[in-house]
Amino acid sequence: MAIVPFDDRDGWIWYDGRLVPWREAKTHVLTHGLHYASSIFEGQRLYGGRVYRLAEHTERLFESARIMGMKIPYTEEEINHACNEVAKAQGLDNAYMRPVVFRGSEMMSVAAPNSKIHVAIAVWPWPSYFSPEEKRKGIRLTVSEWRRPAPDTAPTKAKAAGLYMICTISKHAAEDQGFADALMYDYRGFVAEATGANVFFVKDGALHTPIPDCFLDGITRKSIIALARARQIPVFERHIEPAEMAGFSECFLTGTAAEVTPVSQVGPYHFSPGQLTEAMTEDYAKDVRATVMIDAT
Ligand code: PMP
Q: Which atom of ligand 1 is nearest to the CA of 219?
């Protein structure tokens, strides 16, 4: 399949308050966000023409910006409106949407308090993060050599571009070795998350998932916990030692892009995607559509 570069597509991108032709949504090479990672973003999906949990994503966008000391020059309502506007302009009902906020070119040094804060929102079709074939069998993960940093080492609560350095390195290394992704441990050695998704395990009919105290508390993660509890499935949020993986029967990833993705292997540990992974996949698929119906009435 030919790769269509992201800067050479048709349509519109919302950029600093207005829709601009896709190819004209540019920024200069001397941009603070590019040099010093003063950039935060969101990833959200449209299902049936509505952004699933848009308010939560926009709230997290503003919280990430606040943590980074960046004042977004719009209100949350304006950003929500802009998200819907760009989806409509692009004529997409089922798609992935990426709001990004970054410091501009006014100042080029570590401190850049007077830089303009830019906001862009793009949307494009992205059916599945992992291939349907990979998803059916369960994806294979290796273990990353990189660890999620401590909360006093990096702004771990922000969805900040800088935190993805180790994710890209880890995922490249995993793919080079024939794995779909990498599982990352945290600075203490506990199981943390994959490079762009949270992780759940199954043991004796219950779900176990790490406490998000040094990595992103995914919006999908929170949906899955609520959906599981609605089914009376016990959910334990706790620190998980890597060796415990030997005793887990199922494993799956959750994320806006990954949705619910079964995992068949993490390094030396093997899992069989089963009943609970299937139940959560189905419940999540219903939930993303149900939100549409509730919103539409
Ligand atoms: N962790 C990381 C590092 C991510 O990039 C993502 C995707 N945003 C997640 C977890 C899952 O978050 P969410 O469910 O909000 O998409």
A: 15
Ligand 1 centroid distance, CA of 114 (Å): 30
Sequence-distant (6+) residues with CB within 8 A of 49 are 87, 93, 292
Beta bridge partners of 7: none
Measured CA to CA, the distance from residue 250 to residue 247 in angstroms comes to 9
- Reported as type and span, the H/E element at residue 291 is helix 275-296
Of 159, 171, 222, 286, which is the active-site residue?
159
Structure tokens belonging to residue 193: 């998350």
- The per-residue pLDDT for 296 is 45
* Mean residue pLDDT across the chain: 95
pLDDT in tens, 238-282: 999 999 999 999 999 999 999 999 999 999 999 999 999 999 999
Q: Which CATH architecture has domain 132-290?
A: Alpha-Beta Barrel (3.20)
Rounded to 5°, the CA angle 286-127-287 comes to 15
Best mutation site among 40, 200, 220, 253 for ligand 1 pocket (most ligand atoms within 8 Å of CB): 220
Q: How far apart are CA 213 and CA 156, in angstroms?
A: 8
Print burial letters for 184-194: b (CB count within 10 Å at least 16), e (below 16).
bbbbeebbbbb
**Range 12-124: architecture per CATH:** 2-Layer Sandwich (3.30)
